[in-house]
Each structure stands twice: as C-alpha cells, then as structure tokens.
Amino acid sequence: MGGCTSKDTTSNDDKKSSNMVDQAVLDKLETGFTKLANSDSKSLLKKYLTKEVFDQLKTKKTSFDSTLLDCIQSGVENLDSGVGIYAPDAEAYTLFADLFDPIIEDYHGGFKKTDKHPPKDFGDVDSLGNLDPANEFIVSTRVRCGRSLEGYPFNPCLTEAQYKEMEEKVSSTLSGLEDELKGTFYPLTGMSKEIQQKLIDDHFLFKEGDRFLQAANACRFWPTGRGIYHNDDKTFLVWCNEEDHLRIISMQMGGDLGQVYRRLVHAVNEIEKRLPFSHNDRLGFLTFCPTNLGTTVRASVHIKLPKLAANRAKLEEIAGKFNLQVRGTRGEHTEAEGGIYDISNKRRLGLTEYQAVKEMHDGIAELIKLEKEL
C-alpha cells in the first residue's frame, strides 16, 4: 500500500509528518529496492532505479500524497514486468522525473528530457485508406487513445466519491453524442447478467485489472465508477476508469484504417469540447502508464501472416524495424490464437497523432508485401 492511499487512515496527531513519507512506507521501499536489485528482472525500472536515484526520491511526496512506492510497487511485485512503473498522479512525472525521464527515453525511442512532445495534430484524416481491400490478411482494425480528466489524480489516488463523480460526468457527456457515435452507457455497478454476457460476447467488457494493475493499486472500489459506452453499430467504444480515466476506441472488421481513424478523431474532438483533458507541454496527454504518454494513440490490426509468423522472432525483428509491437491475439502477455497476431505502433511520444498512425499503416503495408513475396 503506497502513500496516496494512506491518507484515509493516518490521524492528524503529527502535523509535521504530513509532508514526510512515513516510516512504514520507507521500510517497504527499502525492502522493495533490495528485492529488485537482487533479482534478475529485465524491467526498465530495474535498469534505471539506481541506489543514487532511489535515495534521492524515496522521501518525496506529491500533493496527492503519492510516494515513490506508489510508482514502483507493481514492478517490485511483478519482477517479470517490461516497464515496472506507473504514475499515481500527474505530478509524479515531474517530482519523480529522475526515474521517469530515463524510462520514458528508453521506451519511447530516445525521447530525451530536453525534448518536447509536438502539439496535437490529427493530420489529413482522409489520406489513410484500406490496408487490405481483398480481406486476405487483416481480420480487424482498431485505433484507441487514452485521456485523463483534468483536476483528478490517476486510479490509485481516486476516492470512491471521485470515481462516482467522474462516471457521472463521462456518462452525461457521452449520452450527448450524435449520429454514428450515438449509443448507450452501461455502468459496471449493478450490471445485469444479460448485459454482462452481451458485452463479453462482443469482447467489450473489461475485467478487473490484471496483477500488474492490482499491484499498482489501480483497482480500488471496484466496480464503482467504471463503465462502458458503445455506439449502436459497435464500432465506437469508451471505457471509463479502466486503466485510464478514458479509453476511447474506434474499430471495425477488415483493414479500413482510414475509416477507423476518422471515426476516432471525430469522437475525441466531440468529447474534448465537453470535458477538459490533462495535458502537459513536454509529455503531451498524460496517462497512468508512461508507455502511453504523448499521443496516447495505439493503432492496431489483428492480422494473419502465416509465413512470416512461422518464425516469431523473425516477425518481431522485422516489425521492430518499423517501430511496431507484436502481441498475442488477446493483447499483452498472451499467445497468438489461430495464427492471428495483434500488431501496433510502438511509438506514441515525440511524434504527432497522424505520424503514429501512419507509422503503423506503413509498417503493416510492408509486412503484407513481405508475406505475399514469401
């Protein structure tokens, strides 16, 4: 349990200590650091949390009472993490910059602490087309982005009341959407078995967080404040208070990336007119996990490349050249079912929204070309 959850339990006996990290947290930090240091973890957390950085940051606390423990506890508990760090609130990116900055630079391909993320630019939405008009390779296409609501911390620090308040704001905002985006908001609280099953069948329902999110304290007061919105065509979806405050998703069967991207851009612009998003001049749009910062855009396809995939290591190597990430069918930490891979852009920071999607577009086009040549 980290700092930002401890304020519910501490008494006001010692006003002086309110800016200090309490001893129990410090003890957990020391134990955690030793465990990490002695492990053979390959995480970016292990790589960059040197003793020097650790000693410098262990006594710091944000105005939401978050400590270094809130940032690193998931990576300490799950030594098989790839990254191993989360930001409990927007301030953590600045206060714990000595740890976040090198991890961000490493993950986002050389985004240095002196670099600035460019302003939002969705580009010419009509310039992207269908990557697979004959429907030979691409099963489905999806583009999503994450957004945090201004004035609220991230999951680990949210109170139950804040969860409810946010759900109310989000649900009333989404119910105002029209035309292609018009749909229904389903709160997870009190959801009937029928609706639950329907959302599971459509692969829309998100479950309580995995062990990485659990360890980061991102699943408190579950299912309060969580909900799902989708349009009538089932091509537009919003997750409320899953990993991020908002996950905005556009998707459909086949390879028409242009259509999927246009729908997402339209939706984000409509929502932003009504809800202010948390944005930082240097890091772009802020998210709970540093891998999603900047554009927060993840454009992906479910794709069958049987010849290339005969050697997964080779497939990953080729994909890597185009800054693409290969995952199993059901996302991170899963296998490819029936030879179907989930392939997406890896870079989200230091480039525009349009460039991130275009990178995926060009990489997938190239993979399809190579598959055809084999």
Automatic annotation (TrEMBL):
This is arginine kinase. ATP binds at residues 140-144, 203, 247, 298-302, 327-332. It is an enzyme of class 2 (transferase). Belongs to the ATP:guanido phosphotransferase family. SUPFAM superfamilies: Glutamine synthetase/guanido kinase, Guanido kinase N-terminal domain. Residues 137-374 form the Phosphagen kinase C-terminal domain. CDD domains: arginine_kinase_like. Residues 1-20 are annotated as: Disordered. GO terms for cellular component: extracellular space. Residues 25-109 form the Phosphagen kinase N-terminal domain. GO terms for biological process: phosphocreatine biosynthetic process. Keywords: ATP-binding, Kinase, Nucleotide-binding, Transferase.
